[in-house]
Specification:
With 560 residues, this protein is α+β, with helices and mostly antiparallel strands. It is built from 15 helices and 18 strands. Helices cover 30% and strands 23% of the residues. Strands 1, 10, 11, 12, 13, 14, 15, 16 and 17 form a nine-stranded antiparallel sheet that branches. The protein is globular, with a radius of gyration of 26 Å.
């Protein structure tokens, strides 16, 4: 996917942006219904999914029915049938859809809803052409130790987090004190925090699209050290805090003198975790996250700086000409808003800061982790609002569990375009793409689907027998994996596509590969699908693995 970035201002109020959304480009895609245009949605700097206009239209209608339209940008209207969009019209529609999704994500009750999560989780699954199957994923702790976990390939982030916490026997009350993060480990051993894994994505799918130097890491997701007191009584939570503190001290995120380092080393050797934590909590930058070196324009333009974020503040450390390290602290409560924009191959985060009663000034930070800084700032704001409203961390039984809503099809991406036109080309009435050579009429919703095909679907007539070859030269099986209503129900296991296998009894239409795939899924996934739907008990496979694995409280002690 092409690289991108987008501007994303935040405001410190109730309508705060929860995540970074952008639609920088579109793609021409082909499936069994014909060619059509999809809009490529990126979140927090990474490609997430491709969706059709008709899918976004249905999404907007569902939001309108459930939440109304207050505070939302108007959704772009349909065009007349059989009229293709010009490049200028396509670019305008893309921009309007981007603004609409950004406005939706700014409404907290919408962004936290099962409807929102379900749409983007299903869209990611469709874009990745990922079938629902039992897979193994590695979850790392802060100090590099990992645990393998059996999940469904399409499980969302919260499902994976809860399953991992059940495996290590962490109390339910403490599950959401932690979160999953995407981290990159460079060849020299340095670590780069990329972003927090969002609730509406599948960690397995997101990780599968990346290279081997990326990993999913479990870390605390709170800033105020006072929340440590809630975790003291749980041995597993204490161990998680301990291994993270050891990592942060060794990485230099927590600042300790040589004498303090010797004291910490002695406590670590004795495995005195509580005493270690009591001492480390008194050190500078405890519960801070440090960012890779960057360039700032404060106090002077173009100065090298180290950024770290901690309880209620962003800290900027710069070296003066004399070699002295000077520290500047920016309180989150004084940051009016912030934004992230692209600057070549780097990201620029800038925030509007209230230096005095009548003095607001933008401070710019240019580096590779602008998105992660923004995510951390939003986490700090969320925590301040939670404390102000006297709320507590949610528990697994309190969250809404989304259901999949999209109709899945196998797709072939033909081309991708940013739809950003030079000024002299915006007045030209050219076609959207080379798809005009196709003999199929264009549907105004998403640039595809013949009218007679749509009428056939409405009337319930059987589909015409497809050509023996598709764009990739093979007959494509279709279907979706769906979870049963209860453990007694027969799971409706399907391969990736449009038609349920329960309706595809004419097996001569399926290739041998599709038959084997369906059979394997039906026998391998039924128990795991039931677990994924009800999400409260580990599978037999997981139980066996848990019995064979080490006791979690011992993990880390041996490695450390």
């Amino acid at each position: 996917r092409p690289s991108f970035l987008r501007s994303s201002p935040h405001c410190n109020d109730e309508k705060k942006r929860k995540m970074h959304f952008s639609i920088p480009d579109t793609s021409e895609v082909e499936d069994e219904s014909g060619r059509f245009t999809t809009y490529n949605i990126y979140t927090n700097g990474a490609f997430h999914c491709s969706v059709r206009y008709s899918q976004l239209l249905q999404f907007s209608e569902d939001i309108k029915k459930e939440f109304g339209t207050e505070g939302l940008t108007p959704f772009p209207r349909k065009k007349l049938k059989f009229l293709k969009l010009t490049p200028m019209e396509m670019s305008e529609r893309r921009e309007m859809l981007e603004k609409y999704i950004q406005s939706v994500s700014q409404v907290p009750q919408v962004a936290r809803s099962a409807l929102f999560t379900s749409f983007f989780l299903s869209a990611q699954q469709e874009a990745a052409q990922q079938e629902a199957e039992a897979v193994e994923i590695d979850i790392y702790l802060a100090h590099g130790n990992k645990q393998s976990l059996y999940v469904m390939s399409t499980d969302q982030t919260e499902d994976v987090l809860e399953a991992f916490c059940r495996k290590i026997k962490l109390q339910d009350d403490f599950v959401y004190y932690f979160a999953l993060f995407l981290m990159r480990v460079h060849e020299d051993g340095s670590e780069e925090m990329i972003r927090k894994v969002q609730d509406f994505e599948s960690p397995y799918i997101s990780l599968k699209e990346l290279s081997e130097d990326y990993r999913i890491v479990l870390r605390k997701w709170y800033w105020d050290p006072a929340y440590d007191d809630d975790l003291w009584t749980d041995s597993v939570a204490l161990n998680l805090m301990f291994v993270q503190a050891v990592h942060d001290v060794e990485a230099g995120w927590i600042r300790a003198t040589k004498q303090e380092q010797r004291q910490l080393s002695g406590l670590k050797a004795k495995k005195s975790k509580k005493e270690y934590m009591q001492l480390v909590r008194t050190l500078k930058h405890y519960n801070y996250v440090e960012i890779l070196p960057c360039i700032a324009d404060f106090p002077v333009e173009g100065i090298k700086a180290t950024v770290s974020l901690g309880p209620s503040e962003l800290c900027l450390e710069v070296a003066t000409k004399s070699g002295e390290i000077k520290e500047f602290n920016f309180l989150v409560t004084r940051i009016r808003c912030w934004k992230v924009v692209s600057c070549g191959d780097r990201l620029e985060l800038s925030f509007d800061y209230l230096f005095s009663k009548e003095k607001l000034k933008w401070v710019k930070i240019n580096g590779s982790q602008g998105i992660f800084i923004s995510v951390c700032l939003q986490g700090l704001v969320d925590e301040l609002l939670m404390k102000r409203d006297n709320k507590k961390f949610k528990r697994p039984r309190e969250r809404q569990r989304p259901e999949r809503s999209l109709e899945f099809r196998k797709r072939t991406v033909l081309s991708t375009t940013s739809n950003v036109l030079p000024p002299d080309e915006k007045q030209e009435e050219s076609t959207v793409s080379e798809a005009k050579a196709s003999a199929q009429p264009v549907d105004e919703e998403d640039g595809s689907v013949q009218d007679h095909e749509r009428e056939r679907r409405k009337s319930g007539e059987p589909a015409e027998k497809p050509d023996s070859k598709t764009s990739n030269g093979s007959v494509e099986a279709s279907g979706v994996a769906a979870a049963p209503a209860s453990s007694q129900d027969q799971p409706a296991v399907q391969a990736s596509g449009r038609t349920s296998l329960s309706h595809a009894r004419n097996e001569e239409k399926l290739t041998d590969k599709a038959k084997m795939q369906a059979k394997r899924l039906s026998t391998k996934v039924s128990d795991t699908l039931t677990r994924s739907k009800n999400a409260h008990l580990p599978t037999d496979i997981e139980l066996d693995k848990m019995k064979e694995s080490k006791v979690f409280s011992d993990i880390g002690d041996e490695d450390l």
